Amino acid sequence: MVCVAAFIILCLASVIVGILSIFRRDIGKKYLKIFKKSWGCVGKKVTFQKCDTNFKDDVKNTILRKVVIKKPKLVKPLSITIEIVSVLIVLITAWSLVESVKAGLALWTLGTCNVEHPSSCSLGSGGCSIDGDNDSNAFVRWFEDWGEIFAAVPDKFRSWEVSEFDFVTITASDNGEDKSGAIDIMDPGCEVCLQSFETQMNDGFFERYNVKIVPFPILDGDGNYKFTNSKLVVSYILAVDQQGAPAEKEANNESPALNIYRHIFLDKEKNNDILQSYQFLFNNEYSAEQAEAKLKEWLAKDGYSEAEISEIEQRAKSEQIEQQLKKNDELVKELHIKYIPTAIYDNRKHSGAYKAD
Predict the structure, then answer these.
(1) CB under 8 Å to 160, separation ≥6 — which residues?
(2) Domain limits at 123?
(3) Does a cis peptide bond (omega within 30 degrees of 0) precede residue 215?
(4) Which of 18, 185, 224, 250 is 20 to 30 A from 51, alpha carbon to alpha carbon?
(5) Rounded to two decimals, what is the model's pTM?
(6) Residue 235's domain is classified under what CATH number?
(7) Tell me, what's the pLDDT at 25?
(8) Helix, strand, or coil here: 353?
(9) 163-176 tens-digit pLDDT
């Protein structure tokens, strides 16, 4: 193990010595000789051969030379310590390599280098992360992460057909049979969803595709909803979509359920003399009662009667809506989606904010 540990340390030192050898060739030649010797020792270890004891002794003797002269009694315990440290260096290096491979595979397959907590990965796709649950202990979770990574590998090679996915959706745009389908998974409380929605509108995304939006309140790792009032808003969106257009209003191509998204994402209101988006108000200012009152206010402006609003309220709090939320959550997990928004179009899954062409 001493020669393997020495090789690892020499590899790390090679960068510095390599730079120095540009100016001092004698250092470079001396270092290269030791490096070749350590590499030969590592090669033998990998092929289960006996390591060159001369090199092992060289390393030990270099470290112990002064100790032998001054304190001979410390030679044996120090020699054992060197062996232990060597083993630790090799184990730590091997663990680091395994973790690096795991992070790289996770980034490739799932769009995040941290499977359980995507938000902690600065190299991730961006967006509002869907964190894993905290029920498993760290050891079990480590193996579960590997399982999730390997399960997601086929997703990189599949064709993502919109018609395959049985999400509970609302219609955002319907431009006829000649247009391709698209699915947008969005949480009304997610700031990146707001940005993505605005970019899609400005880029003509809703005109180029027949878009279905999946109203999706993000759960955190503790089983709570990530954004205050997010579940309430999503429940109302689904309930309004099932209710249909107001009875007293002339039918048009606008989706009443989509209007709630528009209000949340695009509209603003003065709060303490500051113009703020409704998304901010729903996430940070409104209680559940205030949020529901605002939703009902919008419904009334859209032409719903008091009786219809009462029916929508009851439907929003029904077991049917709960089951639909559960269904969407299960599909999101099944598809290994780690960030919201996520869009499916052109036979591909696109994680994170929509990017204009």
Answers:
(1) 344, 347, 348, 349
(2) 107-151
(3) no
(4) 18
(5) 0.75
(6) 3.40.30.10
(7) 62
(8) coil
(9) 999 999 999 999 98
